[in-house]
Amino acid sequence: MLLLAESTTVPCGLESLLLYWPDFVSAEKSRYFFSILLNETKWHQENISFWGKSTPVPRLTSWHSQQNKSYSYSGIVNYSLPYTKTLYELNQMVEKHTGLKFNSVLLNLYRDGEDSMGWHADDEASLDRHASIASLSLGAARDFQIKPKDKSRKLSNIELAAGSLLVMRSPFQDKWLHRIPRRKNIREARINLTFRKLL
């Protein structure tokens, strides 16, 4: 059972699909975990192909699984690295707060506002479609934008603050797309951890 936040800031009508805790970890702990993850994570930059042309993905990533599970999306195969002590600690914190269970985590490093993530849904066949995805943000605040796949509503925006936790509940991925847009005025880095459950 999910523990509801005392204060949530999500678009009207999506309260059952998105839960947001702006102060999941304190500012001090956010800086602490950000520094550790920035330095201990084996970051790498993938390439993605569009119309036969290979282009670097505009962010750095690192994939970790407790059960040595690989994860594929957009033609990219992510081979698993083991959980670090820090990832285990954060995983346990998120599970305890939400009542959910996860076995994998994808880390994204947005080096500045030039780094981004395009419109997508986390609906790969390897994911448990009935499970939620929990997104922990550390570092610079970035906009999280969503829009319905059927274009029935306008784009909505949530600012994901440092130390915040956003949970996307099923069936959010079936009906909605999300992205992290470019923001040229942002000079600081952001680390995002998305805890997932693979089949």
Q: Which series of helices and strands comes N to C?
A: EHEEEEEHEEEEEEHEE
Q: First CA to last CA: what distance? A: 20 Å
Helix/strand/pairing category: alpha+beta
Kindly state the percentage of residues in helix. 10-25%
Strand ordering within the main sheet: 1-12-9-14-7-4
Structural Rg: 16 Å
Shape: globular
How do the helices and strands line up, and which of them pair or pack?
Blueprint: E1 18-21, H1 27-40, E2 47-50, E3 53-56, E4 60-65, E5 71-73, E6 76-78, H2 85-98, E7 104-110, E8 117-120, E9 133-139, E10 142-148, E11 156-160, E12 165-168, H3 172-175, E13 176-180, E14 190-196
Antiparallel strand pairs: 1-12, 2-3, 4-7, 5-6, 7-14, 8-13, 9-12, 9-14, 10-11, 10-13
How would you characterize the overall build of this protein?
The protein is of the alpha+beta class. The chain contains three helices and 14 strands. Strands 1-12-9-14-7-4 form a six-stranded antiparallel sheet. The protein has a four-stranded antiparallel sheet with strand order 8-13-10-11. Residues 1-7 have low confidence and may be disordered.
Structure summary:
With 199 residues, the protein is α+β, with helices and mostly antiparallel strands.
Key features?
199 residues, alpha+beta, 14 strands, disordered N terminus
